[in-house]
Amino acid sequence: MEMINKMRKDLIGERVLSALLLLGGAVVTGCTDNNYDLSDIDMTVGVGNGELSIPTSSTTTIKLSEVLDLEEDGDVKEDADGTYRFYKKGDAVNPTKTRINNITVKKASSESYDFVLDLSHYSSLSAKRASSRASVNFSDEMVVGSFVYNGNMPSEVVELNKAEVNSEMSLNLSFDNNISKLLNQITELTITLPTYMDFVVSESTAKYTKIDNKLVFNNLSTSESQKVIVAIKSLTFGSKEDLTGSLNANDGKVDMLGKVSMGIKINEDVNVTTGIDPSKCTVGCGISFVNDIQLTNVTGRFSPVISLDNLGHTTITGLPDFLNEDGVKVDIENPQIMLTLTSDMTVNGLIAGVINYKREGESGSIILNENINVKSAEQSNVAVTKVCICRKKASRGQSR
Length: 400
Hints:
mainly beta, 13-stranded antiparallel sheet
């Protein structure tokens, strides 16, 4: 019984071996027989239900790059670490330049007045004396000119601190017959301009000394008129109103009020003469104001609107076939917006922004969670700041 079983097993083994030999022969024969065409075997890579199926029975390791058949200039590329990523560079965006319109303040009103001195008291003293001269000790100051300028600020201007200007003011000093016959000279004459003005004297027919916002003329002759031209270089905003005026920029308006004062000190002898009225000794101060003052380089706070309405567009091409199959949904993992900001301002800038988007018919907005620091430019140079706005922040050591 045991032998029969063994024989049966041997017989079965021989039959199986014969069958395998026959099958093996069929396979070998099939590879060379034209009646068998193996070229129609389906080698299509299928994507569905989140699975990647490759029709092969081989247990050999197959790299994904061999299956994807990536195009050299395609949009799917393999990183150095073996990760496959989709890269697509959009069109370049036209440069956006931020400009703020010029600020011009226009003259609303201006007046100039004469300085009238009453020296009759000193003249009467000299008449009572045997001598024809009497000593005068006189000192006074008064406003001889005033002006008002108004202007509008662009909406981008939040605050003004200082502004460079290129403007002039001329003063024409004259002495009437009464004072020129009574006095040979004025011991000291001063002209005080608004404290918010930074100015230089571009022309003067008389010697002077500049002390802050005051011009001092010593021993000024009364025999001839004098002319002074003042070049205004800059204006400082925000100071409190004083005796010389005020300059403010608030609520989109620029308001400039200015006063010009003249001070006269006399420590001279009065000449006794006839045909004059010593109570009306007049020093004229004809002040000529320019009609408009244009602010050029300004320092302050600004809030310009930078509109990037069109960030360009891109067409996705060069995708592998399996990414074009029905049911495949491709999403952008970490889109990036690259900005190059140039600035010729010598102060640091700070930009905060909101990105508005529309996707599949739905609109939304994203507030940037970090402010953008804009580098300041050195004198006569331009600073370049490169910014990457992206969904995911790169880990330490990686570029964004």
